[in-house]
Amino acid sequence: MRLQGKVAIITGAANGMGAAEAKLFAKEGAKVVATDLNGEKLNEMVAEITANGGEAVALRQNVTSEEEWKAIVAKTVELYGKVDVLVNNAGVASPKTMADMDMDEWNKVMDINLNGCVLGMKYCIPEMKKAGGGSVINISSIGGIVGMAGSSPYTAAKGALRALSKSAAVEYGKDRIRVNSVHPGIIVTPMTAPSMASAMPYYEAHTQLPYMGEPEDVAYGVVFLASDESRFMTGAELVIDGGWTAL
Ligand SMILES: NC(=O)c1ccc[n+]([C@@H]2O[C@H](COP(=O)([O-])OP(=O)(O)OC[C@H]3O[C@@H](n4cnc5c(N)ncnc54)[C@H](O)[C@@H]3O)[C@@H](O)[C@H]2O)c1
Q: Any idea which fold 7-238 has?
């Protein structure tokens, strides 16, 4: 029960890493507000948590909508009285090179992968201040640290999220609000599934361990950052990449 009594909002929780985080958070005693664009899949995920005795609620949300962020935070406070943890996990892939990409694609990726996280922080941080502290976990990527060909808008958004996490950590440290970024390598989820066959030689060449990551490999790190075990960590980067960035 490493998260007993904590109230956590997790975005993009219907699938992949967000779903694994929501399940592990509930198992560790958190009250989970799970949000996603895909309401149907989200309801199934939350039903699984509650069937196993966990505490969770499913709220449909588009993270790019400021109005919806206000409503999600208000509903969380109405249901559970506070916000302790925000996991900005929702994101989309964008296999585009600079010359291929059009500005609509660029804006879409920035809107979801960066602006959605900005809005989450903007509306959760005041509640964390009221609660006397909190933990924000921004799910970036190895693409926020090193270059990746054919992922320009994605890596730009993830790199900005990495830098933004550090600035927010500096701005809110004295309020006991910690802000860290997480940098997964290749994790087997619905996001990477379409590329698994064709890109496997590339993935294997960069991943130093002889296997790819599972959503739970990242979820354990996110639980640590949400818990008081990481109370002296802020503005840090938790890299969970099977050695991709070690080279
Ligand atoms: N899978 C990987 O290898 C990998 C590696 C590094 C970083 N990441 C990052 O980890 C996070 C989770 O990725 P995943 O692989 O679990 O992806 P996924 O596609 O399995 O899940 C992402 C979820 O986000 C939701 N979502 C998308 N747009 C949304 C929006 N506008 N509003 C609300 N929800 C929205 C989707 O419905 C989906 O349920 C993402 O931010 C991703 O960029 C993934």
A: Rossmann fold (3.40.50)
The residue nearest atom 38 of ligand 1, judged by CA position, is: 12
- For the question of whether the overall pTM of this predicted structure is more than 0.85, the answer is yes
Q: Is 202 a catalytic residue?
A: no
Is the Cβ atom of 139 under 6 angstroms away from ligand 1?
A: yes
* Ligand 1 centroid, distance to 10 Cα (angstroms): 11
Q: Is the pLDDT of residue 236 over 90?
A: yes
As a whole number of angstroms, the distance between CA 19 and CA 16 comes to 6
Indicate left, alpha or beta for 207 from its phi (over 0: left) and psi (-120 to 50: alpha). Answer: beta
Of the residues 154, 172, 203, 211, which is catalytic? 154
Question: Is 65 close to ligand 1, i.e. is its CB under 6 Å away?
Answer: no
Q: What is the pLDDT of residues 120-172, one digit of tens each?
A: 999 999 999 999 999 999 999 999 999 998 999 999 999 999 999 999 999 99
- Which residue ranges make up each domain of the chain? 7-238
